[in-house]
From TrEMBL:
Membrane topology, from the record: Peripheral membrane protein
Compartment list: Cell membrane
Domain of life: Bacteria
Residues annotated as signal peptide: none
Keywords, comma-separated and alphabetical: Cell membrane, Ion transport, Iron, Iron transport, Membrane, Transport
Start and end residues of each AAA+ ATPase domain: 47-218
Protein name: AAA+ ATPase domain-containing protein
Amino acid sequence: MDPSYTRRVTGRFLRDIAVDRDVDTTAYPFRLPIVRGLIATGHLDLAPGVTFLTGDNGSGKSTLVEAIAVAAGFNAEGGSRNFQFATQSTESALGRHLTVGRQAGRRERSNFFFRAESFYNVVTEIDNLGVADGYGGHSLHERSHGESFLDLIANRFHPGGLYLLDEPEAALSPRGLLIALARLHDLTEAGSQMLIATHSPILLALPGATILQVEDDGRLRRVTYDEADAVQVTRNFLSDPQRTLRHLLAD
């Protein structure tokens, strides 16, 4: 970690986001709960440091992170703003109807958009570009999915950066999640801003992070770690697995 770049510089590069109000909320992706919630509230302020988006499947978290990335100039499949490849255009139209406000006078030193579902395509592009040295000095295709993500955040994520991550826990073991948690903490302390969609109760424990939970009506509610649904469901299961299984598997 660069000792010259610490939290003396606040990690805030994206200030807020807003969705156009003249969209058809009966059509995809504008009918997604999180999008309807944003339209209803007008905009979403993005805090310095780390902001987690959490909520149930189908709430629209990943779609929103993808749209923010596209609106902020990232490649839809992932990578930095310098990545221009396209394997298959599957991104939603939301990014074209999203306004991203930047913090005046601030520019990140590094940036990256990570999508678990298309990271394979990003790794292939890294090999095609011949820039593997910046990712640990070897092809990430030679690593497991989880190892390649840990290589990414260890070697390519730098202090003072802007990082958008969609479900980074997808390929990580519990131990891998703890390693990732420590790295994200270091990056935050060194002035980075991150927006992360996740279901992981381990990642949600990141000290100082803002946790925004998608409610049933689509509105984003700031919650504490203990209030987050992902934490409560996991904690209840681990405290008495047999009780949960009896309930789930009852005839």
